[in-house]
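Troubleshooting log. The previous run stalled partway through. Resubmitting the same two chains, unchanged.
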Amino acid sequence: MSLGNTGLLNQDPVHDRAPLYGQLLHTYKWSDKLHEYAGVASSILSSNTLKRSTTMSSIATKRLRRPGPTIHAVPQHNVDSLVSSLALLFPQEMTVQLIRPMGSSAILKITLGQTLRAVVVLRSLIIEWVVVKAISEDHHVDDHKPETVWSSSRYKVFQKVTDHANSAMLHFYSPNMPELAVKSFMTWFRSYNTLFSHPCQRCGRLLSDNLPPTWRDFRNTTAYHENCRQ
Amino acid sequence: MHNLSVYQWPLPEGKNGQQAVEILQKRVEQLGATKTGTFCVDCETYQSSLGPNAPTKNVFLVHNTEHPATTFAVLESGLVLVADSLLDIFMLKLNGAYNLKKNANIESKGQRYEQMDFVIKIGSVSIGPSFKGILVEVEYQPCDIPASCFDLMREFMQGFIGPSVQLPPQLVAAKIAEPYTPKDTVQQYLDHFNSLRRTTAAGPPTRMQ
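Second attempt completed without errors. Output:
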């Protein structure tokens, strides 16, 4: 392969000592691929209607630029009122407990029926961390045992649900409407109440790879196995 | 504690206990389960001897390798006492009031397997040297409520036991909406032990493993 004049580099007799041309080809391919991936990503992202950040297109809007989102510094009582409204969302199935063991950051301990427990770490109104564990596993979060927030469940099924909850946290993330993001996440998360009893929408079975349907659709919360969701 | 079901597996025709266990082990291994050691659930029977006219009553002392530091004492009425393993020594002190019944020790012993969140135990039951039957224990660890996850367990068990598994064990079915406890495991084993005691050996007397 020859890249125009740079092909002359290949004629360099000190090629063995300075493999410049090989590295150049490698760089060229890399940048070509980057361009291609960026093109694909851009077409996917432009079809997504829910914008996560506001883009100022014209000069006029630049002048009238609003202050940037400040949801990372929301007063505590706003968080408290959001959490108390969350507790009222699904009083039968979900209990939400708020604690602040490490300063002002709120940690939500969520118990979903008799199925699972989750620890959600909030930075103001942004969900920063989600861990899902079994009811029987240790959830005692305090200053002396902060590792319970960061350690993952010992069961494969809850490790998988934690992964999916993290992807949901990113999906629902919306700095312009933080309260809606948290509420949407909770509504989605509630569907795990039937984790062990709801068969997969696609294959109609409960087990696939010895795991129950761990995936819940973001729009309609129907249950799927991880492999069945495409 | 986790949800668990114990089933008796009937011997296939023309097979002895050892061969039947091997068939079952092979099936489980083909499903991809990994061996995680052995297990043993044993049961000693103590009989009350309070006087010549007093009716004799049994107390069953059950040990389970899943709970190595615990002894479960079960009365005939079904009442379960969960105690430290020192209870065994205490029962010896009660010699005179409660005597160990000779040749009544029954145990289920065998291989323990794990597959994802499931634990499978295939035990051959024997009283002394005589083989009595096979008990298969399947446990689903993440869920405590049998009502939520029994369908899932049934699907799993049908993979190697066969379509004969349809309903949860009687004891589990009775408390299907309540959280499962280790006491329920002990009672399931005890029920099976008591029914297996009454049966004659299902195959030629062979000592398993």
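Takeaways: Chain A touches chain B at residues 114-115, 134-136, 155-158, 194, 196-197, 205-207, 209-212 (CB under 8 Å). Chain A has two domains: 8-46, 76-224.
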